[in-house]
Amino acid sequence: MSNFFALIPAAGSGARMGNALPKQYLSLNNRPMIYHAINTLCQNQFIAGVFVVLAPSDSEWFKYDWSEFSEKLIVLSCGGLTRADSVLNSLTAAKQKKLVDTDDWILVHDAARPCLTSIQLDKLINELSADDVGGLLAVPVADTLKRSNIENRVTHTESRENLWQAQTPQMFRYDLLTQALRSATSINVTDDASAVEALGFHPKLVPGDAYNFKVTYPQDLALAELILQKRNNS
Ligand code: C5P
Q1: Is 143 in a helix, a strand, or coil?
Q2: What is the pLDDT of residues 80-98, one digit of tens each?
Q3: Which residues contact 21 (CB under 8 A, 6 or more apart)?
Q4: Which residues, at least 6 apart from 154, have a Cβ–Cβ distance to it below 8 Å?
């Protein structure tokens, strides 16, 4: 039987937030932002373990008390230069430590998506656990999309038909994901699905919701705070 593991790459610096502290540690509802994703993933009934991938130089992580998650939370200090490197390094480390098997499912989730709900997570797992390829949470594009030239002048309007915004978790079997990331080192891979696509596979898009956005700019942090506070109060 295959197990399900979550993997949170958290070895980035989050330069676009304009803060010296890596964004996964910015305070959100009196916790470091990454706490919220860890909490949702650790509480999930299907998930056997949650790997967090840190930069080898990260000392911030150890300033917090993570003991409430006990041994379900596993820290791997092997982040790389890119997100793809961080994911691949940690998959290799987890296999070397005999923590995962090649046919286990890996759900890669960004530390910077703190508003993931257990409903969305269950939906992803239920829709994909019998799938041959795997897939990801995503939302259909709602806005009209403009293509520009370098002077920010519109050159044309893109059709939004069949266009989706990729989110995380992105769920693939260990074997396929490692194979995809290994062969993807030379191309521009900003998520796990694009590495799998480059091998010729067609990951399934599981409709999610817009609340599971990625905190990238300072205003996103304020929005995430409002969403989490509202959930706590209802
Ligand atoms: O920079 P971006 O928002 O795309 O990063 C997405 C996720 O990948 C973040 O959780 C970040 O910490 C992680 N990351 C990583 N290793 C890197 C770069 C980014 O684990 N070298």
Answers
A1: coil
A2: 988 999 999 999 999 999 9
A3: 60
A4: 146, 147, 148
Strands 27-28 and 145-148 turn out to be unpaired
Probe target for ligand 1 pocket from 86, 113, 116, 168, with the most ligand atoms within 8 Å of CB: 86
Cβ–Cβ under 8 Å, residues 182 and 88: yes
**1: Cβ–Cβ under 8 A, 6 or more apart, which residues?**
none
**44: how many CB neighbours lie within 10 A of its CB?**
18
Report the C-alpha gap between 75 and 84 in whole angstroms: 17
Ligand 1 atom closest to residue 9's alpha carbon, by position in its atom list: 20
CB 50 within 8 A of CB 74: yes
Q: Is 33 close to ligand 1, i.e. is its CB under 6 Å away?
A: no
- Judged on CB neighbours under 10 Å (0-12, 13-18, 19+), 86 is buried
Q: Distance between CA 14 and CA 21 in Å, rounded? A: 8
Residue type, 35: Y
Give the DSSP letter of residue 121.
H
Tokens 């599981």: give the residue.
206
* pLDDT tens digits, 177-228: 999 999 986 557 889 999 999 999 999 999 999 999 999 888 999 999 999 9
The tokens describing 211, both together, are: 């609340």
Q: Is the pTM of this model over 0.90?
A: yes
- Bond from prior residue into 169 cis (ω within 30 degrees of 0): yes
Distance CA 192, CA 136 (A): 9
